[in-house]
Design goal:
alpha+beta; 4 strands; 30% strand; rod-shaped
């Protein structure tokens, strides 16, 4: 009775190959799921950063047009919104006065052009942008700039 030596153990090798392929497929699926979740978290953080920057712009417009920035617009201020949104917002202002013709009585009319910039970030520093946290995986930064005119 002849022995079949060549075919012995072939099933075990085939089963090992199938198990390795299934394990690789499972690892790829887990990695893809993790990447999608990280992308979604970054999208949410980016949206929050944009909202924080918009809040900084609105605050800066209020400061420029209604309160004390009319005379000293050059100083940047940082809003701490970490409790509400998890972000800090650095708001800076620059202003320039222009002559815009004359009024009916012949007096020169002056307008002031404000340029407000708000930078929102979730870094560890006290101001934005945070150069030390930029390389971190969860760092998000958004910038918004507006111009407004105040006629006097």
């Amino acid at each position: 009775m002849p022995h079949r030596v060549a075919g012995r153990g072939f099933g075990a090798v085939a089963a090992m190959i199938v198990l390795v392929l299934l394990a690789t497929l499972a690892a790829a699926i887990v990695r893809l799921n993790w990447t999608q979740q990280m992308g979604s978290a970054q999208d949410i953080s980016a949206s929050r950063a944009a909202q924080a920057a918009q809040a900084g712009v609105q605050w800066g417009l209020y400061q420029a047009l209604k309160t004390g920035w009319k005379t000293s617009c050059g100083a940047a201020q940082t809003l701490d919104l970490r409790g509400d949104m998890g972000f800090r917002v650095t708001v800076s202002c620059a202003s320039t006065d222009y002559s815009e013709g004359e009024s009916v009585s012949g007096t020169p009319q002056t307008i002031r052009l404000y340029t407000l910039t708000a930078v929102a970030c979730n870094g560890a520093a006290n101001a934005c942008p945070d150069a030390g946290s930029v390389a971190g995986p969860g760092y998000v930064e958004r910038r918004q700039e507006v111009q407004a005119v105040d006629a006097r």
